[in-house]
Design a protein that fits this description.
Low-confidence stretches: 233-247
Mean pLDDT: 78
Cofactor: Mn(2+)
Radius of gyration: 20 Å
Organism: Hyalella azteca
GO molecular function: alpha-1,3-mannosylglycoprotein 2-beta-N-acetylglucosaminyltransferase activity; beta-1,3-galactosyl-O-glycosyl-glycoprotein beta-1,3-N-acetylglucosaminyltransferase activity; manganese ion binding
Number of strands: 6
GO biological process, one term: protein O-linked glycosylation via N-acetyl-galactosamine
Shape: globular
Structural class: alpha/beta
Largest sheet: 4 strands, mixed
Number of helices: 7
Function: Initiates complex N-linked carbohydrate formation. Essential for the conversion of high-mannose to hybrid and complex N-glycans.
Length: 247
């Protein structure tokens, strides 16, 4: 639920939260993260599109550097179609969406390391399980733990890892596009997610010793390679410069 998605809130919510707005003197507090904390959300959920239509255009500022922009935001998928039609809008009701997630997890095929699945290699999703849905049970004892399996798995997939915080009751949905056919994958944080009961027979995947360093380094190398491979020379009338970013 970061600002790059564009926010839309009700007047009632805005009037409620403005009275508790973070003090500008607290420079260590990001207002977007602050709005995300449970006492302010009060059980609310943010409606986030699977593919954003707004790009984080700032290359530098109080909370972003050109380096972060290139390695993180430039690697995201953005919708470039101004006339895109949104699908499944009927799911944007809390009770309907809860039922939908329950039904999806009930019919999902379980991925496990014992059967050859490797979290950092989506190619190991068996062909007979595609296009899914498939589900993996990950260990997480806190939604704010940056080293939980939920966060490390996000890095394995080279997504924006902090988006794992924007989970729905401990469930994160991914659409894996690097395999054929594209596959829907659910990651469930256990034991804290109320949906763990739907996959109680699945083996819980826990981080191995040294996993944080290895996976973070692997993700950073991937981002750098992708960044460098998508550079081009931008030529002006009297000089040229190299543009580092996705084309």
């Amino acid at each position: 639920m970061f600002p790059q998605f564009g926010w839309m809130v009700t007047r009632k919510y805005a009037q409620e939260v403005i009275h508790s707005w973070v003090d500008n003197s607290k420079t260590s507090v990001d207002w977007d993260w602050w709005l995300h904390v449970m006492p302010l959300r009060r059980g609310r959920h943010a409606l986030v599109p699977e593919v954003s239509r707004s790009f984080h255009s700032g290359s530098s500022g109080a909370h972003i550097t050109g380096w972060d922009q290139a390695l993180i935001f430039s690697n995201m998928i953005y919708n470039r179609d101004p006339d895109v039609k949104l699908n499944d809008l009927h799911l944007l009701q809390a009770d309907v969406y809860a039922d939908y997630i329950s039904s999806e997890l009930k019919r999902s095929k379980i991925l496990s390391i014992e059967d050859g699945f490797r979290p950092c290699s989506v190619d190991t999703i068996p062909a007979h399980m595609r296009p899914g849905p498939v589900v993996v049970r990950l260990e997480a004892n806190s939604y704010s733990d940056k080293h939980s399996s939920l966060m490390l798995f996000a890095r394995c997939l080279h997504t924006y890892p902090d988006h794992a915080f924007d989970n729905y009751e401990g469930v994160v949905q991914y659409t894996i596009t690097s395999i054929t056919p594209h596959t829907t994958l659910y990651a469930v944080a256990c034991p804290i997610s109320p949906y763990c009961g739907f996959i109680e027979n699945a083996t819980m995947t826990s981080p191995r010793e040294g996993a944080v360093v290895r996976i973070s380094s692997r993700d950073k190398r991937w981002r750098l390679a992708r960044w460098y491979n998508n550079t081009e020379d931008v030529r002006y009338y009297n000089h040229s410069a190299t543009y580092y970013g996705l084309i």
